Amino acid sequence: MREKVEEALAEIRPALQADGGDVELVDVSQGVVKLKLKGACVGCPVATMTLKQGIERLLKKRVPEVKEVVAV
């Protein structure tokens, strides 16, 4: 499952990097994906919205085993 998550993150990573941010996959366990926000994403007021409505939605669509995405 980790490989599938990495592939899906590769799709969204260019958009994050274009705004000066990035995301790092920390862990995948029991359907929970743990990500570390980096760069401009750290402290960004819309980071939670990006995480939940952007990244989580994409991951759930591409990898149905994903139940939740959390920032660590």
Distance between the first and last residues' Cα: 19 Å
Class by alpha and beta content:
alpha+beta
**What Rg do the Cα atoms give?**
11 Å
Tell me the helix content: 40-55%
Q: Look at the structure and name the CATH superfamily.
A: Fe-S cluster assembly (FSCA)
Give the overall average pLDDT.
94
What is the name of the CATH topology? GMP Synthetase, Chain A, domain 3
How many domains in all?
1
Give the ordered list of helices and strands. Answer: HEEHE
The largest sheet, given as strand count, sense and whether it forms a barrel, is: 3 strands, mixed
Shape summary: globular
Give the low-confidence spans: none
What is the CATH level 1 assignment?
Alpha Beta
Question: How are the strands of the biggest sheet laid out side by side?
Answer: 1-2-3
Tag the structure with descriptive keywords.
72 residues, alpha+beta, GMP Synthetase, Chain A, domain 3, three-stranded mixed β-sheet, 46% helix
Description:
- This protein is α+β, with helices and mostly antiparallel strands and 72 residues long.
- The chain has one domain (2-71): 2-Layer Sandwich (GMP Synthetase, Chain A, domain 3).
- 46% of the residues lie in helices and 29% in strands.
- It is built from 2 helices and 3 strands.
- The protein has a 3-stranded mixed sheet.
- A hairpin with a 2-residue loop joins strand 1 (21-29) and strand 2.
- The longest helix has 17 residues, at 2-18.
- The protein is globular, with a radius of gyration of 11 Å.
- The mean pLDDT is 94.
